Prior knowledge:
Helices cover 23% and strands 31% of the residues.
Amino acid sequence: MGKLYSEIDDRLRAFIARQRMFFVASAPNGPGGHINCSPKGLDTFRILGPTRVAYLDFVGSGVETIAHLRQNGRVVLMFCAFDGPPNIVRLHGRGAAIEPRDPGFAELRASFPAAPGVRAIVQVDLTRISDSCGYGVPLMRYEGERPQMGEWAERKGEAGLDAYQREKNGASLDGLPGLRWTSEP
C-alpha cells in the first residue's frame, strides 16, 4: 500500500507530470483558525530538485496559504490519479511564498509559462514524500482547462489586480498577514 520516499524519483516525477490538478492544504497555528485546502490546475507545478518543488499562485479572493506559510511554513500538496492506475502522492514540507518584488522571483518565474494574474510562487522544501493506493478516488475524464481565470486577470489589468490584492489579499480569514506588499504605501 503506502510507501515513503527520500526524494522524488523518476516514477513519482512521471506520475506527478501526468496529473492535471493537485490540492494544497495548510493551517494556522493552534487549535482555532481556518484550515485551507485549494485545488490547483493549469501548467503551474514544477519539480525543482529531488526534495524541492514550486507552483504558481494566482490572484484570488483569499490568501490563506500564503498567510499560513508566513506564520508557520507548513504545507502539503496532494496529487490524485483520476484516470489510469489508482495512486495518491502527498508532498509534505516547509513552504515560502515568493512575491514578485522578492529577490529570486524573476529567475524562478522563468521556469513557468507566461500567464496573467500571478501573485506569488510557492516554493516547498519537502520533508515527507509518500504515496498510497488511491482506490477510493473516482475515475474522471479530463475535458480541458477553464479560461475564466486568465480572462478575468487580463480584464482587470495590472492596476486593477493591484487594487484587488490590496483589498482582498492583505490578510487571511483569521487576520493573519497575507501579501507583504499590500501594506506598503
